[in-house]
UniProtKB/TrEMBL annotation:
Keywords attached to this entry: Dioxygenase, Oxidoreductase
Domain of life (superkingdom): Bacteria
Matches recorded under Pfam families: Glyoxalase
Gene3D superfamilies given in the database record: 2,3-Dihydroxybiphenyl 1,2-Dioxygenase, domain 1
Gene source species: Paenibacillus chibensis
Gene Ontology terms for molecular function: dioxygenase activity
Record-given protein name: Ring-cleaving dioxygenase
Domain VOC residue range list: 7-131, 152-269
Alphabetical list of PANTHER family matching this protein: RING-CLEAVING DIOXYGENASE MHQE-RELATED
Length: 316
């Protein structure tokens, strides 16, 4: 069976404080909060989704804010760096914006591209790169205009315990194409416009530890439920242990851990985030799956309230 993913569907990370997280990703980075729900396996913890205006696959970063979380250590078996793509010509805007918020930035380069590397409040490693591909954002918030706004994921850097095997899986299982190698990085590309460039550090990395400031998993796109079932068979055919298909309300999901220790998910593009909220009202209230509705009062009492707000630096 020959299968190819379009690229990243979403990336999910651990953080501590919901308000600080929303302030950073909505207030500073200008993303839209498209859904607030809970971790279905631990409903005392939020699951927050941010992305473009519709929450399109390839734009969605999600968070489990766990106030008592230990500090994680980024390392092998994780997504090491999450890459956001902005329009061509917008990098200087972002360099100045991050400086205005006193966020330390390091300029880096690989594969003839310039990156702004920085971290969020919990230490999650992020970077911004200019890319021509992909539609422009239609969302503007705070001091981020549409023509400078983050379009979605440019890709990610994978830190593997077994980089050769991770690289092989990207090609033979997920259908990515190897397009080059430069220094410590091998680059792979999918056919999609967003979340399509994956770099693998070719040096084995010391194992990371989960916790705040680390990525829990990276999810890859399946176009529909029928293809999703084919993906499950395809992964099993390559000798990997994979979960049954799980209903995540806004997509269906299956999970497996690849040989380099990284938790992979394959998620369906549909049904999307407007299935239980009007597109104009996404993310405005806590949405619970039907099986948790009778516990809404109990669940809400354990969650720390937060709001999407314009930050002082943009109000001046």
């Amino acid at each position: 069976m020959n299968m190819k993913t379009a690229g990243i569907h979403h990336i999910t990370a651990f953080v501590r404080d919901p308000q600080k997280t929303v302030d950073f990703y909505a207030g500073v980075l200008g993303l839209r909060l498209i859904k607030q729900t809970v971790n279905f396996d631990a409903p005392e913890v939020y699951h927050l989704y941010l992305g473009n205006e519709q929450g399109s696959p390839g734009t969605i970063i999600t968070f489990f804010p766990w106030p008592r979380s230990r500090q994680g250590r980024v390392g092998g078996g994780q997504v090491g760096v999450t890459t956001f793509a902005v329009p061509e010509g917008a990098l200087s805007f972002w360099e100045q914006r991050l400086a205005n918020f006193k966020i330390p930035v390091v300029k880096t380069a690989r594969f003839s591209e310039e990156y702004l590397a920085f971290r969020d409040e919990d230490g999650l490693q992020l970077e911004i790169v200019e890319r021509e591909a992909g539609p422009l954002s239609t969302w503007s918030f705070g001091g981020v205009p549409e023509d400078k706004a983050i379009k979605g994921f440019g890709g990610a850097i994978l830190y593997s315990l077994a980089p050769a095997e991770t690289a092989q899986l990207l090609q033979q299982v997920l259908g990515l194409e190897k397009v080059g190698q430069e220094g410590a990085y091998a680059r792979f590309r999918s056919f999609g416009e967003m979340g399509n460039m994956i770099d693998v550090n070719v040096n084995p990395m010391e194992r990371g530890t989960g916790g705040a400031g680390t990525v829990h998993h990276i999810a890859w796109r399946a176009k529909d439920d029928r293809e999703h079932e084919q993906w499950r068979e395809h992964v099993l055919e390559h000798g990997l242990q994979v979960t049954p298909v799980l209903d995540r309300q806004y997509f269906n999901a299956l999970y497996f851990r690849e040989a380099g220790g990284i938790q992979f998910e394959i998620a369906t593009d549909p049904p999307g985030f407007a299935r239980d909220e009007h597109p104009d009202r996404l993310g405005e209230k806590l949405m619970l799956p039907a099986w948790f509705e009778e516990r809404r009062g109990e669940i809400e009492a354990k969650l720390t309230p937060f709001e999407v707000r314009e930050l002082e630096e943009d109000a001046q």
